[in-house]
Design a protein that fits this description.
There is one protein chain. The protein has helices spanning 12-19, 28-51, 60-104, 111-152, 158-183, 191-238, 250-266, 268-271, 286-292, 332-348, 371-384, 387-398, 405-408, 422-431, 444-447, 452-461; strands at residues 296-300, 312-318, 323-327, 353-358, 403-404, 434-435, 438-439, 465-466. The radius of gyration is 34 Å and the shape is elongated. The chain has 467 residues and is of the alpha/beta class. Helix 4 packs antiparallel against helix 5 (158-183) and helix 5 (158-183) packs antiparallel against helix 6 (191-238). It is 63% helix and 7% strand.
């Protein structure tokens, strides 16, 4: 028998031509093995990309184990089976051709010769059937790994993982077809055939379970897409028409901020791919809302200064370019407020370009503002420091509904002589990390990721700090 070429070393176009030329070599078993190989390399790609992501550090150990298993065992075994299947099935075809030729000369053949040919053919079929069983077992492992990687791997490359899952299941289903067809040529009372038929039942059962699991992943992804589009449609519907902003009351802006926060909370399981929020306060995420409105959020070292007061420009919203920029010259808490301020512009106003100017110390300006700027500031306040969550957080930390100024005096360590108003004392409470001898991990301003000044004003507005 002439030696077959090493098909796996062929160029892709040559291999496809070999599969499609109408021959049995390479055949369906090799095609199933190739599907498994595709699954392997796609999983290795996803694992490699995920290992570069710091956000997935908890998955690294499990992914490295899968990577080692594929590289050391599964991939090299499938390479070998790819070639072996072609060789073993070539033996089957050769014996079938002999049997066919001998049938034409049946009178000339003695009984012993016919039995010998039939026996060799049956053994060859059984040997050839063991190959797809091995391939199927490896592809069960691959499918299980692929489903695991889909859950713990980088969400941005789930397309690759999805194709890997499909390849593994396709290979498994294909092997089950091959095994079933081959066993039709073997008598049911053959001991080897009986064992292989038992294997087939197990393989079919595994395929059903794995396919169901895979469908649930796809269904979840489809639901995620539907949820995201519904959220985006919701945000689009909430955008204010050109001149309608003039009619807005402060309560309207607060209602809008709360509606968005409620939507984020209701849809958190689909809008967040990792680190799904477990508390309502954790859905306060300006970037998430901007992204769902088609905007990108970037931080630049400087955005320049205003012409009139020479204040550093803290943020820019460009509707045409779909970007929001913040300046890294300011503290992260100021950048956070600025981003929410620009989100307010996106929702409340139709201008193509708007910017927020901020004093270099990052403090909230006390001068009268244009209506649009005031509204954007209000939106940022209501979105970043929602009434319900601030009151709840205040009670959880301080154990009371309000604090009077006289109770704060003991925490004032500034001995300078100047007029200390309620905002000053509220600022002390906003930045405290202990109260009545009890320490806590974060201050109110840190919990809500805003400046001490912004939180101080909010606490007074909500009646949490009083004279």
């Amino acid at each position: 028998m002439s030696k077959l070429p090493e098909y796996i070393k062929m160029r892709a176009d040559e291999l496809l031509e070999a599969f499609g030329k109408g021959s049995h070599k390479p055949g369906s078993g090799s095609a199933a093995a190739f599907n498994g190989l595709e699954c392997s390399v796609l999983l290795l790609t996803v694992i490699k990309l995920t290992l570069k992501q710091k956000a997935y550090i908890e998955s690294h150990d499990a992914l490295n184990e899968i990577k080692a298993k594929i590289n050391k065992t599964i991939y090299p075994t499938l390479i070998e089976l790819f070639q072996t299947d072609a060789e073993e099935f070539h033996k089957v075809i050769t014996l079938r051709n002999k049997k066919k030729n001998h049938k034409k000369n049946i009178i000339k053949l003695d009984l012993q010769r016919r039995i010998e040919i039939e026996s060799k053919l049956i053994e060859a079929i059984k040997n050839a059937t063991r190959i797809p069983i091995q391939i199927a077992n490896l592809c069960i492992e691959l499918a299980q790994y692929a489903l695991q990687v889909y859950d713990i791997g980088w969400k941005a490359v789930r397309g690759d993982t999805g194709v890997a899952i499909s390849n593994a299941l396709s290979a498994l289903a294909g092997c089950n077809y091959i095994i079933s067809l081959n066993l039709l040529s073997v008598q049911g009372d053959d001991l080897d055939a009986m064992l292989m038929e038992t294997d087939l039942q197990r393989l079919n059962s595994e395929y059903t379970k794995l396919n169901s699991n895979a469908y649930s992943k796809f269904n979840h992804l489809s639901t995620e897409l539907e949820t995201k589009y519904n959220f985006q449609y919701f945000l689009k519907e909430k955008q204010v028409d050109k001149e309608e902003y003039r009619k807005l009351q402060d309560t309207d802006i607060e209602k809008l901020a709360n509606q968005i926060l409620n939507e984020l909370w209701d849809k958190k399981n689909k809008l967040w791919k990792i680190k799904i929020p477990t508390k309502e306060i954790n859905v306060i995420n300006t970037k998430k809302v901007l992204e769902n409105m088609g905007f990108q959020l970037f931080t630049e070292e400087t955005l320049g200064v205003t012409d009139y007061e020479h204040h550093e420009i803290g943020g820019i919203m460009n509707r045409e370019l779909k970007v929001v920029l913040t300046s890294s010259l300011h503290k992260p808490v100021v950048q956070n407020f600025t981003a929410a301020h620009e989100l307010g512009h996106v929702l409340l106003h139709t201008d193509n370009i708007l910017f927020r100017d901020v004093p270099l110390n990052g403090e909230i300006r006390r001068t009268p503002k244009e209506l649009k700027e005031r509204q954007a500031d209000l939106f940022a306040v209501y979105f970043l420091m929602p009434k319900k969550q601030v009151i709840k957080g205040f009670f959880e930390i301080f154990g009371k509904d309000l604090i009077k100024k006289e109770e704060i005096l003991q925490y004032d360590h500034d001995n300078r002589s100047f007029q200390k108003d309620l905002k000053y004392y509220s600022g002390i409470i906003a930045s405290l990390t202990f109260y009545n001898g009890v320490p806590f991990e974060k201050s109110m301003s840190q919990i809500f990721n805003v400046s001490k000044e912004a939180m101080a004003i909010r606490l007074i507005e909500l009646g949490l700090i009083v004279e």
